[in-house]
Amino acid sequence: AQSVTQPDIHITVSEGASLELRCNYSYGATPYLFWYVQSPGQGLQLLLKYFSGDTLVQGIKGFEAEFKRSQSSFNLRKPSVHWSDAAEYFCAVGAGNNRKLIWGLGTSLAVNP
Amino acid sequence: GAVVSQHPSRVICKSGTSVKIECRSLDFQATTMFWYRQFPKQSLMLMATSNEGSKATYEQGVEKDKFLINHASLTLSTLTVTSAHPEDSSFYICSASPDRPSTDTQYFGPGTRLTVL
Which of A47, A69, B23, B45 is at a distance of 20 to 30 A from B112, taking alpha carbons? Predict the structure, then answer.
């Protein structure tokens, strides 16, 4: 069955520290992979996506993610977290001909000053 | 680019009434739009896929007659919650995928907070 797992429900980091949010997927074909961020009271914003090619993908706001087929993972990273990065982060896999998204449960990121 | 709007952003209604939520792609055309529901502190639940000019495709367990979807143009899809009840209170989010270029990427509206009294 197709699924997306975000093992960490909640993460707290200090401002300036590095960040890695984990995402594992189960999908039979080559996946389309996405990371979205949802800030309090705001809609979902696309951070980055992977369809094919270079497995290290650069996104907005200084985020990057690496697709590792052998580990079925698409972890999100940022070298130095800012207080404004506090938000809910969702990993998703595009599935099917109409590319419906299969969502992880999200990781809530808190940033300590 | 790729901006999606929703209206209203927040609505409060009485039990038994119907509420219409609009989703518009402002700077692109979208044959396909999606409607989601999000409960507090939870992930998004896909309700239906809205297709311009044809019937929407509903996910299992979603009542078609309760959540009416109309995708009348390439930039507008509407979700009508009919005979709303308190259990329908939720955050409803739409997304749209541009037709050209076809990016297989969904862009999301800001969401509509529905409260049914």
Answer: A47
